[in-house]
Request: fold
Amino acid sequence: MALEKLLACGRDATAAWDRAVAGAGPDEHESGCRHCRAARADALGLDAVVHRMAAQPVEAPPSVIDRVMTAVVGELRPHDVLLLPSPHGPNRLSRPAAAAVLRSVVDGMDGLRARSCRIEQSERESEDDAAVGSAVDVAVTVTGRFGIDLASVTARVRQMVVAAGEQALGVPVSRVDIDVVDLWD
Amino acid sequence: MEAVRERMEPRVVEKLPTPPRPDVALDDATLVVRAQEGDVRAFEALARRHQAVLYRVAVRVTGDPAEAEDALQEALVDAWRRIGAFRGDAAFSTWMYRIVTNRCVGMLRKRRPVPVDEVADAGLPPAPDDPARAAQIDAELAALGRAIAGLAADQRVCWVLREMEGLGYEEIAAITGASETAVRGRIHRARTRLAEVMRPWR
Reply:
């Protein structure tokens, strides 16, 4: 099997082909070897039409993403929720949606992007339990622009997440864990 | 360039501040983590970012735009279902290439086998003084398409990733799950077969 990619002269056929189509001239051996000359002729002969095919524009049909997203939304787990207190009984808030709100708050901070955002609510006995709407713990990982003041990142992110939790989501945030996991330029 | 900037500047100043569009600047690693945590918009951003390349590969491998569209759609839905299992030890693009090419190979194998004689003949080029010479480029491309259709599915995938997408042997090995030696062997066999079938066009 492995021998199949050696030319009759022992040269590696794949490497010889790649060199030829990359525009490299024949080396001393290749100039004199009929196997190498034939392989180079094949490579160069095929190369033009292969390039033309590769250069042909191919555009994805515009409706694919819409159909994919319809299927994706249809498969969401509806039970992954946070329970928020309200006078009419607990309100349900999708946990991924709540995480998206907190991430977008971090994204809006200069030089920061949220990556992971996990929200945990205390265990409760039932939906009527007093623990409904109890405070959540949030764990976020962030990436920062190279050169930002890392010393203040934790405090600033914590402040924003607590404020967003209470004002945008209506749920008290008891704890925020923050990890800076990557830097970008 | 300067003149353009002078004309543009007042309009930029008048523009209202736009809300941040985080998905524009987010890297794949960030979008993948978000999607793994159930963020549908992050997954949509990934799908939009990669769909053109994935569709192009599917068209080259299947040779059929309708099948390629199905392969792309199924691959993306499949990716959403399985994204929790994506470990990030390979690039997201490598992982997606694998899913879409596996779909394509599955489709090729379900097809009614075409007799070898039908696909091996790439046709003959028109004579050099033929008035239809202008159409020869199209005809030659069509002939190459037929020649590719005659390759075994695993050779076809490796050849497309190498010659159409310009990927390295190591990445193709990661995508296909074959050894680099096997990948080189498949590409070599595909190349020599195509060169042979296309020889009348030289």
